[in-house]
Prior knowledge:
The structure is a single chain. By secondary structure, the chain is mainly beta. Helices cover about 10% and strands about 30% of the residues. The chain is built from 2 helices and 13 strands. The strands form 3 sheets. Strands 2, 4, 5, 7, 8, 9, 10 and 11 form an 8-stranded mixed sheet that branches. A hairpin with a 4-residue loop joins strand 10 and strand 11 (about 165). The radius of gyration is 28 Å and the shape is extended. The N and C termini lie far apart (about 80 Å).
Amino acid sequence: xxxxxxxxxxxxxxxxxxxxxxxxxxxxxxxxxxxxxxxxxxxxxxxxxxxxxxxxxxxxxxxxxxxxxxxxxxxxxxxxxxxxxxxxxxxxxxxxxxxxxxxxxxxxxxxxxxxxxxxxxxxxxxxxxxxxxxxxxxxxxxxxxxxxxxxxxxxxxxxxxxxxxxxxxxxxxxxxxxxxxxxxxxxxxxxxxxxxxxxxxxxxxxxxxxxxxxxxxxxxxxxxxxxxxxxxxxxxxxxxxxxxxxxxxxxxxxxxxxxxxxxxxxxxxxx
Length: 271
């Protein structure tokens, strides 16, 4: 019983430490077009905790700053700043990107939240801008960064002491079914091995309870799930097989399929 009580305390502390901005839109892989003169994108976020006493509760936010970014997770490049003083009561921001402002490519937003005792930096999912007429050559970084895909950069938090901490920490070690916050943390995705060592079907994890809702709820129990990016490289290989050649013979147009014939004996057997 003492061990269980200690575990509940640890869970509640983890929820208080790691709760703050949880971005809900745009979704991963969404595409927006600027062919009509501009592209309009709405960035939305929610408070991942209902604990107003937490340092990172959105009730303690002083302001937000929104910036459009591109590039790799370890090489983030700012493209344009939209606002550095979004009101603290806001839970969304409508960004308008003029057609000539940026080139076609893959982007994500940076959401900076200034708290009374620190700050957090979160990034939206990556999305695609098409129909844009801006030039990649006007930027100091390489044009290839506009085509980087994959997961969004990890969040960063800095409170009180001012030390920056990546969000992928001990929250990811708590079993998913034992987490209670509005934002849940899933383990890192693993890759399959090169060989199969099992000879029969086995379950890797115990089953968990399933309780369906019988009535509509005013709000979801969980707003989002955060999964850490890969800490290992993934190598892709090209298919080196030669392309099949085109046919070298075509039957003449005069050729035709001869109708099949069937003997009287076979007709009786089939009929």
